[in-house]
Design a protein that fits this description.
Helices cover 58% and strands 3% of the residues. The protein is mainly α and 1406 residues long. Belongs to the Fanconi anemia protein FANCD2 family.
Length: 1406
């Protein structure tokens, strides 16, 4: 083949002309022959070239050469040197060359290879060439089955190589044709050699044709993928053919072999152009599935058990090959991301455009991490996109776990470790729970998958988070370390020194975090016999220091640490292969240390009841958490001394009288064993409370050596006794059976109406006595597996008027609670405006997810409304007392989850036996609304605390975040899965109660129209409404748990859905698919829509339906949710008292429900138009306190909510309209224009509402107006560019409608100037900038369509909201007023030399 050296260099370098000229031009005959395609006139340049052996052609033909290359060079140099005008002739030669190449075709011919001229001599010289080539090609089939011959020579490859170096072919087209025929019949190795040699054999004119043939060959089989793409990458292809070939390569991506995949992806990425980069990358994402290289660790572990060595080595070879191929693949992507700007941008855009959860793959996560680690410019953008996808739920943790568990990807991910560490650290700073959880999962997976260096970095980062002081980081980091110490104890032991440094920052930790820290350290210290000894020493030292401190918090931290250490020592140990659960013998030194530690704890506790109570609670929590895993011998050694004093301290024989003088007469109450007279016992509560009060009065007069017995320790000590007894007796409580039903020494509680006559001391004594009694019942309730809620209600009613400033006795004893006591009671109980006790966290807008216990009326209602209600309601005094004491909730003992088994019973039956053990009579105690509300309220708080991620969890009792675990210390010992499992078991009774509520409110609705029916009992209605609301909240909290998305919890989710589906199809749900169970559960919950008593209940019901439907969301479910939301919006919500519902909670629910309606409706623009064109005019024409007849929830008070939601959804919806493309058909353009016309019309209606003054916060108009104009510029203007010629009238109408809105926005800018409103002025510059960009963008659109004459500028005066001219411009141009009245689509702020006036453009097109 003619060598491709550049003629330009040859002709300009004189004697150095042998430096790569690409064109060898043909030599002409000495006598010039005039031809139509040859140069007609000759100068010095043409003459010298011709005489040297080249014929210069014009047009498309190639220059011709008839001599050897070296001969041409020698002739040209000799002609220049011997020319009479030398050396001046050189300048003339260069000048002639410059003139010659001014013509583009001639310049192209000079750069292309020259074709040989067929002269007489050359024809005879090359006569043998075709015969030789044919002979060689015919020899190739001889080696089809003996490619490497006897002497080890690859003859086919040698033959093919000869064709690469031929100077000239007589018929190259024929040679290529024969080679392609040979490809179709040759073995793969020969095909490979032929295809890879084609780029050196082909002439430029043949490249396109051969590229198409190779593209077809690429689709036919996968064996030649690599050589074909290698050849194609070296061919010079035009843009259209390149796109065609690239599409061929794209089609084989899903099925190509793993070892060929890097080559295919490299070809696709290296041929990406900026114009179509997003489309190409999107297709590549869809087709590139890393499941083809999946080799999870579980498969590898099974391969290790292969008995055959040959099979084992083959498996390992397969693993290595897979790893290498995947690494090569990501190296290809990495190079493209680093050096091709359009690839990074396109990949980020392609991932961003994916909206469905199923569209996201492991590849997306890998690529985002790759971009973050490789491309500094787009690293932050990739991190931001990843965070956004996590928030939306598109990238669950399971996706990342799949990446780390894929053995072939681990080596690739390891290269991204710095980015993983940086991203995880950033995510832990996030306020979104899903992002925080994802970051913690990144830490855990990196620790498990990477080497020791990476593990050390992970531990160091986690320790840094713990010591940072940030609450969220601290909690989640300790949780990660806890998981690591459980799953990878031996690995984490190597880095115990780093973990131990957290002991230096314990002043920032609260008790729950101290428990986690000491659990981690204790596990490390006692899991390895010798390695953990130095950790044990440090822990002993720190705990002793804390226990010896006089600071209460330090003592409590010491007790928590000591009990945690005891728990680690007392655990049964797995020995050897784990078949035995025998504890290794403790050495004497450790025994002595622990004994001394326990002695020190006892000394610290005996004089301080609060500290002793904490010791009891911690030990009880330890036994409950490690149930069945504790060494009974050690448990007896450590715990027996703690519980053996309970009978002597708190239990006395039951007698008719009690010795002593007390403030109130002693009376035994609540005896469940009244028939047992002999050996009866009682809890000596009232005398102990009196003794405790007396001790506080006398101060330090008591002997310091005597152990203090306080009623504070009654409940904690009984809790420990109960767990200790159950653990020692395999769950049996027979030994303490007498305590479960024994009475309490209290006093007569029928003091209603007598409280005012009591002194302050007597009232406080009585309140304290009741708190102790209530807490005793709450502890006994689990042991009884039932609750005498009736007794609780009596005592709640008695204590609803405590003395102002009264501080109840504490029920929880960690440092949080003690601090909370002082902070809560410094101001005394706070009353809500409706007269009920309020939880001190208030009703924040961010935490409006659930109401207060019976909050069917709003907290921000005027005082007069409910005070009038109290006056007119005779039964007000009998109102549910459980809601009266919300501020005192931290002072009640925590209910265990087992207590809620009472929900299984619609009726509780109590059998009383006679002396012969026969049933004497049965007393039926119904679980009424008050008791149900009491239980459900507590259950709701528990579920919200455990199943809701910590970053979004409400603080239930106190404002301070650090106190959020008060009342949940026992619950925190359980995992979220354990809690969810317990609630799933309660679903059946919860469904029963929900159906009862449904029936009750249906009956209420039916009776409302009957004249002879009595009025609604307001108290009962509110209580039942509260129960209904709490039931729905319970369902929502359960099904919204993000743990259901994890594969290991799929069975639990199925069990929960099966309970709901069973209500509609009894006995038919066992074999239903998960999708069918979801549908049936959805229909079951949907049936409650007709009976919801309040708007907030309707809101929770809608959220519950969305939660169920999202697993996954089907089209019909979306329609049902939209229809239901609209139904609730079009319903009038009135309280039993006749007042319309309102308040913060109502507004928050309305905002969310309206968003749900607009997001789920099939035509959001039509829905917005209906509200704005129907509902808003009805509101404008209504009375001052009226509402829209179509949308009763639309009032003057809620208009701001409707406006904000509609504007935000309008902006969001127009962003979903695809931008215009040149390839769009006329029908597609018309459809997009129609959608934009509706959107602009809606925008115009909403913006012009400023004239009716429904919304006085004008900055909403400015803000959302700017956002809409910016969206129009970005998305609608490209559409107008390409549709203007075909749909001129539609485009002009669209612009004119938008102009009406932009003019109103301009008037608002003038309004802000007149009133000097800073809140408005801050929005004006950005808005005016957008309006200015709009004008010039329209001008650019007209210029693009060659209609510049349709655009002109005029002066637009600044006016106020009423259209009056602003006085500062009264001297403006008269003519401008006329222009202002003309039709025009946009205004802009002052520009250039036109001073303070605005530019104005008349509509284009006409």
């Amino acid at each position: 083949m003619v060598s491709k050296r550049k003629l330009l260099k040859a002709e300009t370098s004189g004697e150095n002309s042998n430096a790569d000229p690409p064109s060898r031009c043909s030599e002409t005959k000495k006598s010039r022959i005039s031809a139509p395609d040859r140069v007609e006139t000759e100068g010095i340049f043409e003459e010298l070239i011709r005489t040297s052996g080249i014929v210069l052609k014009v047009g498309e033909g190639q220059n011709e050469i008839a001599v050897d290359q070296m001969t041409f060079q020698k002739k040209l140099c000799l002609a220049l040197e011997k020319h009479p005008a030398y050396p001046g002739v050189v300048k003339q030669f260069i000048s002639g060359l410059e003139s010659h190449i001014k013509d583009r075709n001639q310049f192209k011919n000079c750069l292309l290879p020259c074709s040989p001229i067929q002269t007489e001599g050359s024809r005879s010289e090359n006569m043998c060439f075709p015969a030789v080539i044919t002979l060689l090609l015919e020899k190739i089939p001889e080696f089809f089955f003996d490619i490497v011959g006897t002497f080890g020579t690859d003859f086919p490859r040698l033959i093919i190589n000869q064709f690469k170096w031929l100077d000239k072919f007589l018929d190259s087209q024929d040679l290529v044709k024969k080679l392609m025929q040979l490809v179709s019949v040759s073995p793969v190795p020969i095909q490979h050699d032929i295809i890879t040699s084609l780029p050196e054999i082909l002439e430029d004119s043949q490249q396109s044709e051969v590229a198409r043939e190779l593209s077809c060959l690429l689709k036919q089989g996968r064996r030649l993928t690599v050589p074909i793409l290698d050849a194609l990458s070296r061919l010079d292809l035009d843009a259209g053919l390149l796109a065609e070939v690239r599409q061929s390569a794209m089609t084989i991506v899903p099925s190509v072999k793993l070892e060929d995949l890097p080559v295919v992806v490299k070809f696709i990425l290296h041929n990406v152009k900026a114009a179509d980069a997003v489309e190409v990358i999107s297709d590549l994402r869809k087709n590139l599935d890393l499941s083809s290289c999946d080799l999870p660790l579980k498969i590898l572990s099974s391969q290790k058990k292969v008995k055959s060595q040959v099979q084992a080595s083959s498996s390992m070879s397969q693993v290595t090959t897979s790893q290498n191929c995947v690494k090569l693949l990501f190296d290809v992507i990495k190079l493209a991301v680093r050096f091709q700007k359009e690839v990074s941008e396109a990949w980020i855009k392609a991932i961003e455009n994916s909206t469905s959860v199923s569209d996201h793959k492991v590849l997306d996560l890998m690529v985002l991490l790759l971009i973050h680690s490789t491309n500094t410019k787009y690293g932050k953008q990739a991190e931001k996109l990843l965070k956004s996808k996590i928030r939306l739920g598109c990238m669950p943790e399971q996706l990342m776990q799949n990446a780390f568990q894929n053995h072939s990807l681990v080596s690739v991910i390891k290269d991204f470790f710095p980015s993983i560490l940086a991203v995880a650290q950033t995510f832990l700073h996030s306020g979104h729970p899903a992002v925080v959880s994802f970051g913690s999962c990144m830490y855990k997976q990196a620790f498990a998958a990477f080497d020791s260096y990476c593990q050390q970095e992970v531990v160091t980062a986690l320790v840094t988070h713990v010591c940072s002081g940030n609450e969220t980081e601290l909690d989640i980091s300790l949780d990660v370390l806890t998981d690591l110490v459980v799953l990878h104890t031996a690995l984490l032991m190597r880095y115990a020194t780093f973990v131990k440094t957290i002991l230096d920052s314990t002043q920032k930790l609260h008790p729950c975090q101290i428990r986690k820290l000491f659990y981690i350290l204790s596990t490390l210290a006692f899991s390895q016999r010798q390695e953990g000894s130095y950790i044990q020493d440090d822990m002993h030292m720190v705990i002793r220091k804390w226990l010896s401190s006089t600071v209460p918090n330090h003592k409590q931290m010491g007790i928590i640490g000591a009990v945690t250490m005891i728990g680690s020592v007392a655990l049964k140990r797995n020995e050897g292969d784990g078949s035995s659960l025998e504890r290794p013998e403790l050495n004497s030194e450790r025994d002595e240390q622990l004994s001394n530690l326990l002695d020190l704890v006892g000394i610290c506790c005996e004089q301080t009841p609060e500290v002793l109570a904490l010791y009891y609670d911690e030990f009880a929590n330890l036994i409950e958490k490690q149930k069945g895993n504790l060494d009974l011998q050690l448990l007896d050694k450590f715990g027996k001394s703690l519980v053996e004093d309970f009978p002597s301290d708190f239990v006395v024989d039951l007698g008719p009288t009690v010795d002593g003088s007390f403030l109130f007469p002693v009376k035994s109450l609540y005896n469940l064993d009244e028939d047992e007279t002999q050996g009866a016992i009682a809890i000596n509560l009232l005398p102990l409370v009196s003794q405790s009060d007396l001790g506080r009065v006398t101060g330090g007069m008591s002997s310091q050596s005597k152990r203090v017995v306080s009623p504070l320790c009654l409940s904690p000590c009984f809790r420990l006794l109960r767990f200790y007894t159950a653990e020692q007796n395999s769950g049996s409580l027979e030994e303490i059976d007498a305590l479960l039903g024994c009475p309490l020494y209290l006093t007569n509680l029928e003091v209603e109406g007598k409280l005012d006559s009591l002194s302050k001391q007597e009232r406080e004594f009585l309140c304290s006595l009741l708190f102790y009694a209530l807490n005793w019942f709450r502890e006994v309730s689990r042991a009884l597996s039932q609750m005498d809620v009736h007794h609780n209600g009596e005592m709640y009613g008695t204590s609803r008027s405590p003395t102002p400033g009264y501080v109840p006795p504490p029920a929880t004893f960690d440092s949080e609670a003690l601090e909370a006591v002082s902070s809560t009671n410094a101001v005394g109980p706070v009353r809500k405006k409706n007269g009920k006790k309020k939880k001190t966290d208030g009703s924040k807008a961010s935490s409006a997810d659930r109401s207060q216990a019976d909050d069917s009326s709003e907290g921000n209602q005027p005082d007069t409304e409910l005070s009038e209600l109290e006056k007119t309601t005779a039964e007000r005094e009998a109102e549910n007392p459980l809601t009266k004491l919300q501020n005192y909730r931290p002072y009640f003992r925590e209910l265990d989850l087992e207590v809620f088994t009472v929900l299984h019973c619609g009726l509780l039956t109590k059998s009383v036996l006679d002396t012969e053990m026969h049933t004497e009579f049965c007393e039926v105690v119904q679980l009424g609304p008050t008791e149900l509300s009491f239980l459900l309220d507590d259950l709701c708080w528990k579920l919200e605390h455990v199943l809701t991620p910590s970053s979004t969890r409400r603080v239930p009792f106190l404002k301070e975040r650090s106190y959020r675990d008060i009342g949940f210390s026992h619950l925190c010992q359980r995992s979220p899965k354990e809690v969810a499992t317990c609630v799933v078991k309660l679903l059946k009774p919860l469904c029963n109660h929900t159906e009862k509520m449904h029936s009750y409110f249906q009956a209420v609705i039916q009776n409302q129209g009957a004249e002879d029916e009595p009025g609604v009992n307001i108290q009962e209605h509110m209580l039942m409404s509260s129960c209904y609301q709490q039931l729905l909240l319970t369902f929502r909290s359960l099904f919204a748990w993000n743990g259901f998305s994890q594969p290991e919890n799929t069975d639990l989710l199925r069990s929960a859905l099966q309970v709901l589906a069973e209500r509609l199809k009894p006995g038919e749900t066992e074999f239903l698919l998960l999708e069918d169970l979801i549908s049936e559960s959805f229909h079951y919950v949907l049936n409650f829509q007709q009976s919801v008593p309040s708007f907030y209940c309707a809101f929770i019901l809608t959220q519950l339906l969305i939660t169920i439907a999202e697993k996954p969301m089907a089209g019909w479910k979306k329609e049902k949710i939209a229809s239901l939301a609209k139904q609730f919006l079009c319903q009038s919500w009135v309280r039993p008292s006749g007042d319309r519902e309102k308040g913060n909670q109502f507004n928050s629910a309305l905002h969310t429900l309206l968003c749900v309606y607009l997001e789920h409706t099939d035509n959001i623009l039509k829905a917005i138009e209906e509200i704005s064109s129907v509902g808003v005019p009805e509101l404008i024409n209504s009375a001052k306190d009226g509402c829209s007849s179509t949308y009763p929830t639309l009032t003057r008070q809620t208009f701001l909510i409707f406006f904000r939601v509609m504007m935000a959804q309008l902006e969001s919806s127009v962003k979903s309209i695809p931008a215009g493309k040149p390839s769009d058909s006329s029908e597609v353009q018309l459809e997009k224009l129609l959608r934009w016309n509706i959107a602009v019309r809606n925008f115009h209606i909403l913006i012009n509402l400023v004239k009716v003054r429904l919304l006085l916060l004008f900055w909403f108009y400015l803000q959302y107006g700017r956002l809409f104009v910016e969206a129009f510029l970005k998305l609608a203007m490209p559409l107008l560019d390409y549709s203007f010629k075909k749909h001129r009238d539609d485009v002009q109408s669209l612009l004119k409608t938008l102009q009406l809105s932009t003019r109103q926005l301009h008037h608002m800018c003038g309004h802000s100037k007149i009133h000097q409103d800073i809140g408005l002025t801050n929005h004006v510059p950005l808005l005016k900038k957008s309006l200015e960009q709009f004008v010039y963008r329209v001008k650019a659109m007209l210029a693009f369509n060659h209609c510049q004459e349709a655009f002109w500028l005029g002066v637009l005066k600044n006016r106020d909201l009423q259209g009056e001219e602003i006085l500062s411009q009264a001297s403006g141009d008269k003519g401008s007023d006329e222009e202002d009245s003309a039709e025009s689509p946009a205004e802009v702020p002052p520009l250039g030399r036109l001073g303070s006036n605005s530019l104005h453009r008349r509509g284009g097109g006409g």
